[in-house]
Design goal:
The complex is a heterodimer of chains A (413) and B (237). Chain A is α+β, with helices and mostly antiparallel strands. Chain A has 13 helices and 14 strands. In chain A, a hairpin with a 5-residue loop joins β2 and β3. Helix content of chain B is 36%, strand content 29%. The chains are: A alpha+beta (413), B alpha/beta (237).
Chain lengths: 413, 237
C-alpha cells in the first residue's frame, strides 16, 4: 500500500523531470480557464452595467405614457377611438395620487424639444416640463443650486434646471447657476444643475436635459398642440418594489375607468422598469453563457492535450511501469500515479489560468469601462472544472498504464 | 530444510494464432530455503516463463505453485503485486534502474510500495548500498555509475523488502567477465548469509557457481543435479 505523500512526490517528480513538456501541456488548460474566466467576467460586467444604468432611471418606478403597447414592446398612438398622444392629462395624475394605494410620488411631465442659447452657444436638448416631485420619482439629485419649488411651478416662472451635459455645453467656463439662457423666444434664469446620471440602458444620454416648471413648458414652450391639460408622461413611484405590480394593476384599472376603455383597447401604457431591467439582464446573461460556452471549447481542447501527452508519457515509460509493477506496485498504485499527474497538470493550469483570466478581465473591463465582476463561485468553478478535465482526460491514459502486462512492459526497449 | 518453492505439475499454454504453445509442459520441483539454484536451457526452453511464474508476474494455466506458504495460482492481481513486493527480489539483465532517481531512491522504491516510513526506508536503503560497496555513491544517478555498480544498486534494491527469494535473470549478461565474477561473488556471499537465490541463465559458468542446476528443454526439466564444489570455486576466483 503506497503512502499518499509518496504518491504526490512521485507525480511531482515525473512532471518536473520534463518541465517544458509539462508547461506546454498545462498551457492548453491555462488558456482555456483564462478565457472562460475572462469572458464570464466580461459578460457579468456587461450585465451589471445594464442593470445599473436601468436602475439609474429610478427605482420602483412605473412610467405611464399615452398610446397602446404593441406586441413588440413599443408604444404607438392609437388612431381613432379618441386615443391619441394627448390621452393623458393632469387630471389622470391627480387621480392616481389620490386614489391608488402605496404610491409615494406622482410626477406628470411634458416633453418638448427646442433650441437653448446662452452666451453665443446653442444646444438642442430635451426640455422636460416637470413638477418638483419629478426629482424624487427619478431618484435624481441637484448638484449645484436648487430645484424650483411648487409656487414657482404654479406661477409658471421662467426658471430652469440644467442636466450635466447641457451645463457643460452652454456654460463651459462659468458657473451656470444665476446665468441666463434663452429658449422659445424668452429668457430663463438657471437656478440649478442636476447630478450626472450617465447613459441609460438604451444608450441615451440622460444628462442631455433641461428641467423647467410644467406650467411654464405648457404655456411658453410646447405651444398649443394638444389639449390644454395633457401631459406626455406620468412617473409613478411605488413605496417599495413588493407592491410595484399591484400599483401597476391599480393604475391601469383606474385609467381604464377614467378613459372608458376596455382591456386590450387601452390608449395608454404603464411601463414597469423592473420588468425591463429583468429582460435586459436576461439578454446579457445569455451573452455571458454564450461567451463562457465558446471559451469552454478551448478548455476541452486543453483537456485533449493532456490526454495526448499522458498517452505519450505512458508509452515512453512502459518499462518503468513494468518495473514498478515487478517491485510490487498494484494496478491502483499505477492508476493513481498517472491520474494524479494529469490532475496536477490541469489544476495547476487552472490556477494559473484563473490568475491570467482575472488580469485579462480587469484589462478588458477597464478598456470598455465596465464594472469588474468576479464571483468566488465562478473562480471556484473554474478550478473545479479544470480538475474535472484532468480526471476525465487523464483517466484513460492512467487506465492503460495500470493495465499493462508487466512481462510485456519489461521486455519493451 | 523447509521448502520455499513447491511446484507441482505446472503447465503454461500460450495461444499463438491457431497453434497452442506449451511453454511449460508439466513441471514439478521443490527448492529449499537457503538454496542457490540455477535454471539453464536454450531459448524457448521455458526458463523465462518459469521465472515469470515463480516471480508472480504470470500465473500457471494448470498445476499448483506454493511459494513461502502462499498459493500463487489463487491470487488476485492486487494480491500478486503484494506478494512480489514482500517475497521476491528481482534482478534483471539490464538492471532496470529508474534513470531519474538516485541510487538511494532506486533502492527505496520497493519499500515505497511496501508502505515503509520515509525515515526507516532511507536508513535501510543506505545500509544496503553500504553492504554492496556503494556507500560513497548513494546520491549518484544510474548514468553516473558503471554497469557493475548499477547491478549492485539493483541487488540492493532486490534486498530492500527483505524477501525470502532473490530471482535473477541473466544477472551478468550485460557485464564484462571481471565485473560479472564480482557480482557472482556477491551472490555467493548473500547465499552464505541465508538468502535463497534462483538464477536463470544460459551461461554455464554462472550456472556452475550455484549449488544446483535445473536444466530445461521444450518446457520440461531434463536434468536436476548438484554442482561439484570445485566448479563453484573456479567460477568466482
Amino acid at each position: 500500500m503506497m503512502r499518499t505523500s509518496d504518491l504526490i512526490a512521485s507525480a511531482a517528480r515525473a512532471l518536473r523531470s520534463n518541465p517544458l513538456r509539462s508547461a506546454l501541456t498545462a498551457l492548453g488548460v491555462i488558456i482555456g480557464v483564462a478565457s472562460v474566466v475572462a469572458m464570464v467576467a466580461l459578460g457579468s460586467g456587461a450585465q451589471a452595467q445594464v442593470e445599473r444604468s436601468i436602475a439609474s432611471l429610478g427605482s420602483n418606478l412605473l412610467i405611464v405614457v399615452p398610446g397602446a403597447q404593441r406586441s413588440g414592446g413599443g408604444v404607438r398612438a392609437q388612431a381613432g377611438a379618441g386615443g391619441g398622444w394627448d390621452a393623458l392629462t393632469l387630471g389622470d395624475a391627480e387621480a392616481i395620487a389620490a386614489q391608488v394605494e402605496n404610491v409615494a410620488v406622482v410626477a406628470p411631465s411634458q416633453r418638448a424639444r427646442t433650441q437653448v442659447i446662452a452666451g453665443g452657444l446653442n444646444w438642442n436638448p430635451q426640455v422636460e416640463g416637470v413638477t418638483p416631485a419629478y426629482l424624487e420619482a427619478r431618484d435624481w439629485r441637484i448638484a449645484q443650486g436648487r430645484m424650483f419649488d411648487e409656487t414657482e411651478e404654479r406661477q409658471a416662472r421662467r426658471v430652469i434646471v440644467l442636466g450635466a451635459t447641457v451645463a457643460n455645453e452652454l456654460f463651459p467656463n462659468v458657473d451656470p447657476v444665476g446665468q441666463t439662457a434663452r429658449m422659445a423666444g424668452g429668457a430663463y434664469e438657471v437656478i440649478g444643475v442636476l447630478e450626472s446620471k450617465g447613459q441609460s440602458g438604451f444608450g441615451m444620454d440622460q444628462d442631455d436635459i433641461v428641467l423647467a416648471p410644467l406650467t411654464t413648458v405648457k404655456r411658453r414652450v410646447s405651444g398649443r398642440r394638444g389639449r390644454g391639460d395633457s401631459v406626455s408622461q406620468i412617473s409613478v413611484k411605488a413605496v417599495n418594489e413588493g407592491v410595484l405590480s399591484a400599483v401597476q394593476q391599480d393604475v391601469e384599472t383606474l385609467l381604464r375607468q377614467r378613459h372608458r376603455t376596455r382591456e386590450g383597447e387601452d390608449d395608454f401604457t404603464v411601463q414597469n422598469l423592473s420588468s425591463i431591467t429583468q429582460t435586459a439582464a436576461q439578454t446579457t446573461q445569455v451573452f455571458t453563457y454564450l461567451l463562457g460556452g465558446i471559451s469552454a471549447v478551448s478548455l476541452l481542447v486543453g483537456g485533449i492535450g493532456i490526454m495526448n501527452i499522458m498517452l505519450v508519457s505512458v508509452t515512453e515509460r512502459t518499462r518503468e511501469i513494468g518495473l514498478r509493477k515487478a517491485l510490487g506496485a498494484r494496478q491502483s498504485d499505477i492508476l493513481h500515479q498517472f491520474g494524479l499527474e494529469a490532475v496536477t497538470l490541469s489544476v495547476a493550469g487552472g490556477i494559473i489560468g484563473l490568475t491570467i483570466g482575472v488580469a485579462g478581465a480587469w484589462l478588458m473591463t477597464s478598456l470598455f469601462n465596465l464594472p469588474l465582476v468576479i464571483s468566488p463561485l465562478n473562480a471556484g468553478m473554474a478550478i473545479a472544472f479544470s480538475g474535472a478535465v484532468g480526471v476525465v482526460f487523464g483517466a484513460y491514459p492512467a487506465w492503460r498504464a495500470a493495465r499493462l502486462d508487466p512481462i510485456e512492459a519489461l521486455r519493451r526497449e | 530444510m523447509a521448502l520455499l518453492v513447491d511446484a507441482r505439475g505446472l503447465v503454461k499454454l500460450y495461444r499463438m494464432g491457431e497453434e497452442t504453445v506449451h511453454a511449460l509442459d508439466g513441471v514439478s520441483f521443490t527448492i529449499a530455503r537457503g538454496d542457490y539454484c540455477a535454471i539453464v536451457g536454450p531459448s524457448g526452453s521455458g526458463k523465462s516463463t518459469m521465472m515469470n511464474i515463480i516471480g508472480g508476474l504470470d500465473t500457471p494455466t494448470e498445476g499448483k505453485l506454493v511459494i513461502d506458504g502462499a498459493d500463487i495460482g489463487a491470487m488476485s492481481d492486487a494480491e500478486l503485486a503484494q506478494f512480489r513486493n514482500r517475497a521476491i527480489g528481482f534482478i534483471f539483465q539490464s538492471f532496470n534502474l529508474l534513470p531519474r532517481l538516485t541510487a538511494l531512491e532506486n533502492v527505496e522504491l520497493p519499500m515505497i510500495y511496501g508502505g515503509v516510513e520515509p525515515k526507516a526506508r532511507r536508513e535501510r536503503a543506505a545500509a544496503l548500498l553500504q553492504r554492496v560497496g556503494l556507500g560513497e555513491r548513494m546520491g549518484h544517478r544510474p548514468t553516473q555509475l558503471s554497469g557493475g555498480q548499477q547491478q549492485r544498486v539493483a541487488i540492493a534494491r532486490a534486498l530492500a523488502g527483505k524477501p525470502p527469494l532473490l530471482l535473477a535473470d541473466e544477472p551478468t549478461g550485460a557485464l564484462d567477465t571481471t565485473t560479472g565474477a564480482e557480482i557472482m561473488a556477491l551472490f555467493d556471499e548473500l547465499n552464505r548469509e541465508g538468502v535463497t537465490i534462483i538464477v536463470v541463465t544460459h551461461d554455464h559458468e554462472v550456472a556452475a557457481a550455484a549449488r544446483r542446476t535445473i536444466e530445461m528443454r521444450d518446457g520440461r526439466i531434463v536434468s536436476d543435479r548438484l554442482n561439484e564444489r570445485s566448479a563453484r570455486h573456479d567460477a568466482h576466483v
